[in-house]
Each structure stands twice: as structure tokens, then as C-alpha cells.
Amino acid sequence: MQALTNRAQEVSRKPMTFMERLYIPGILKGMAITFSHIFKKQPTIRYPEQKREFSPVFRGLHVLNRDEEGRERCTACGLCAVACPAEAITMEAAEREVGQENLYREEKYAAKYEINMLRCIFCGLCEEACPKDAIYLSETFAPANFTRTGFIYGKDHLLIPNPVTEPEAYAAAKGQRN
Amino acid sequence: MSEQQLFKVTIDNITIEVPAGTTILNAARQIGGDVTPPAMCYYSKLEGSGGKCRTCLVEVSKGSEKDPRPMPKLIASCRTTVMDGMEVKNITSEKVIDARAGVVEFLLLNHPLDCPICDQAGECHLQDLSYDHGKEGTRYEFERRTFKKHDIGPYIQLHMTRCILCYRCVYTADQLSKQRSHGVLDRGDHSQIATFIEKSLDNEFIGNVIDVCPVGALTDKTFRFKNRVWFLKPMDAHRDCPTCSGKVTLWNRGDEVYRVTARKDKWGEVEDWICNTCRFETKNASDWVIEGPREIDRHSVIAQGHYQGSVGMHTPTETFAAVNAGRAPHLLMDIHSVSEVNKDSSL
């Protein structure tokens, strides 16, 4: 049979020679390889003190965006939920009351907005579907959790800090992206 | 005339025989499919409707057998009756397609395009029309017309900015009720549908104006912002109603009835008018006898909703404590201590 690659090696069934039966040269050879790695560049980093840079196209946890005046952009139109192939997003809408114009951008807003991060496949289709620029995928990932309810992220987890009252937190949350 | 005269009419190279007095639009509806011109204002169940929106414009390339000259302009097919030997071009005519794109642009001039907020989105005829026949962008740079909010009762929500002045609701109010309390005020750009007196409409069938409205100008106040139509499951249902036929479509999610509407045929017209009690006040699933799921066109967004069950996330059951002799898990990492991005702004 023709081999698929030229890397295949036949297993040798020959009895070991005297030098091989001594084991010492084999051990020394192995130790030399091990010690030589001390002087090579480490491929690992010391997480969580050190963190790797994310790719600019990385799709992580969702963020619910606000506009320049700090009003929530989401109007609970349901397009992200209908676009979601994993059926991870649910929401409940409510009508904006008089006097809440500085909180919500539109007449209708999302009273509840939940994403199940166990269902989410981070495909970014919600981001594409959103007509109001309200949902973005950020540069973090969902941390581990012991409970499954802990993976259901509500509005309190998803909403970005207010750019008017907390500009530093907003800038940090916004990350490298515009 | 003892015997009804049949006229031969050719629409987009398809010949059909229809009785004299049939409009071109209704002849095209008998053929069906793409040949049928869209209609925003014409409503077969309302007398006198049609001729307002101009979306049903067609080209008549041959007037009749006796007078084969083509008609000089595009004509509104909902108001023009067929003649014997008439030849009509709808989608085969460049002129018609171009004119229809222009009409859509005109209809959308003052339309606020607040579809993400509007409850009609997903079943809006204007939305379908503009996607099918319109152009991609708008050339309008000026401020759109706005109106003062007008309260027309506890059941019906009026959004005058979304209105395209098709007059369907006015005809409905006129023809279903004896007294006229609903009409169009002012002229031109300022014209608006309104109640003449600042009183709520109290007719038993007035809820039907919601169903005839092709856009989201008149919507159900009891359903306002409750859910999006494509997350609901439409079901045919009926009940014993003393005032109306009681045949309706229920819009369910799980067992909860969110909305009751009349059944609509393939032209988007109601089959039976239903009364206000059925529409607004009977929202228990136990009040209705469910006949089965309603057939929805699979190209419609309403057929795209996959979410099942009641609204809100289904909370998963936790197994950790059960398998660990009642010991709750010790949480090592909290998202807010790790992530800058999703920081809880309420803390």
C-alpha cells in the first residue's frame, strides 16, 4: 500500500543492542533535550497576571452599547434573537415613560435582555443583524462558572458603562475597537 | 342582461376570462402569483376603497378589441375595469417597475422607518412592498412630518407619523358602524386620520381598523410592545361569540395568548370581521377552541421564529449541589473582577 505521506516509519521489531540495553546514553540524550529547552523562548505566559493580545477580529462576550449621551441603544426589536442560530437571546420590551428620555434612546427599550452563553456560539450574527448598533462582541471571553444559571447574562452584565458618568470605565470597556 | 358577459383579458401574456365589470387587479388576483399588482389601499371587502396609493399601476398596451390603442398613461388597476381583448403588462413592463419604485419612494418620504420599534414589523405591507419593489436608498434630505400624539381610546394606538393615508380605516369605520366618528382632517401633507371629536371610538367592531391598516399606524394597544410577531405562533381558533363569527387567529407563545387578530387571506385581507370583545378582552387560552396552526408563507419572517415556550429564558436546573451532598459550589472567579468590558454599570 502506498503511504499517504513520506513521514510514516515502520516499527522496528529488532532486539535491542548492548548500547541500547545500557539505557544511560538514551537517558543522557533525553536530558540534553530537556535542559536545552531552559534556554529557549517560553511559549507559555503567566495567566492571569499576563494576558495575550486579542486579534482585532476576535468575537467574545456581548456588550450592549450606549450612544454618546449615555442612552441605551437597544430597542428590543428582536432581530438579534431571530438571527441567532443557537437561539441564545431572549428579551422583553417595555415602553419608555415620560422623564426617561435620558436613559433610553427610543420609545421602546429592552426591559430584560438575556443571552445564554452556554448556547451562544459567538458567530456575531446578532451584531450584524442589529439595526441600532446596539450589540457588539467584545474582546473578552466568558469565564468559567460552576452553575449553569451563572452563564445566563442579563442586562446588568451586558450593558456598557455610561460614557458620561463613567468615562474611564467606558473607555476601558470599549477596548481597542471603535 | 340574463347571461353574464365574459371578457377576455391578457395580463403578462396570461389570458383569463372574467365577468364584465371586474377590475384589472381582481382579474390578476384570479391568476395569482407574481402577476398580481401589489395594493396598499384597495381592500376587496371595503366599498369605495382603492385609487389612493398608486402602487397597483399597470400598463395597458392594448385598450380593447374594438379600440386597440394603448392607454397613454399607466393606470391604477384597482379602479379600472377590464375590456374585451385588453392586454395588460405588469411585471413585463419596464415602465411599471420603474413607476412602482417611484411610488414606494413617495410612500416612504414621510414614513419614519422606525421598524425596530413598530409592532407591525414582520407583517407590514409597506415593509414587504419596499423590499420587493423599492430602491435601496432614499434621496430625501428634509425633516419628515410629525404629529402631536393623539389618544384614540384604550384599545387602539394611533401613530399618525406612520400613516400612508390609504383611507382603509375610514371606510371600515364608515361601513361597519352606523355613525361616522373617524375621518381624515386637513389636506395634503397635513392630512391626518383622526376622530372628529375627542372621544374614543366605541363601536363594537372598531378593532378591525387595526387589521385593515397596511402599516403600523393603527396597532393593538393591548399588544403594544409585548412581543415581536415572529416570536409568536399563529393558531386558528374559534369561540362562540354572540356578536361576530368568532373565527380568529391567536398569536401564542407557549400557552399564553398575546394577540387576537382576524384571519387574513393570501392578499392580507381579513376573512371575517371580529368584534372588540374577541380581539381585546378574550386572551385566555381556555376561552378558545384551537383548530390548528395557521399556515404561514415560509418566506415570511413569521415562519422564522424558532423560540419555543414562554417568554424569558428557561432557567436550567442545577445538578452541582445534588451530586455534592448539598454543598454549593465555591466560586473562584467572578466575571466583574476579571473583565473590564462587561463591567456591571449599576455597581
Question: Top keywords for this entry?
Answer:
heterodimer; A: about 180 residues; alpha+beta; three-stranded antiparallel sheet; two-stranded antiparallel sheet; about 20% helix; elongated; B: about 350 residues; Ubiquitin-like (UB roll); Alpha-Beta Plaits; five-stranded mixed sheet; four-stranded antiparallel sheet; 8 helices; 13 strands; about 20% strand; globular
Describe the structure.
- The complex is a heterodimer of chains A (about 180) and B (about 350).
- With about 180 residues, chain A is of the alpha+beta class.
- Chain A has a domain at about 60-175: Alpha-Beta Plaits, CATH 3.30.70.3270.
- Helices cover about 20% and strands about 15% of the residues of chain A.
- Chain A has six helices and five strands.
- In chain A, the strands form two sheets. In chain A, strands 2-3-5 form a three-stranded antiparallel β-sheet. A two-stranded antiparallel sheet of chain A has the order 1-4.
- Chain A is elongated.
- The mean pLDDT of chain A is about 90.
- Chain B has three domains: about 5-105, Ubiquitin-like (UB roll), CATH 3.10.20.740; about 140-220, Alpha-Beta Plaits (2-Layer Sandwich), CATH 3.30.70.20; about 225-315, no CATH class.
- Chain B has helices spanning about 25-30, 95-110, 125-135, 170-175, 210, 275-280, 320-325, 335-340; strands at about 5-10, 15-20, 55-60, 75, 85-90, 155-160, 180-185, 190-195, 220, 235-240, 245-255, 255-260, 290-295.
- In chain B, a hairpin with a 2-residue loop joins strand 1 and strand 2.
- By secondary structure, chain B is an alpha+beta fold.
- Chain B has eight helices and 13 strands.
- Chain B is globular and about 95 Å long.
CATH T-level fold name of one domain in chain A = Alpha-Beta Plaits
**CATH domain class name of the largest domain in chain B:** Alpha Beta
Uncertain runs of chain B with pLDDT below 50, 5 residues or more? none
Proportion of residues in β-strands of chain A: 5-15%
Overall strand count of chain A: 5
The assigned CATH architecture of the largest domain in chain B is Roll
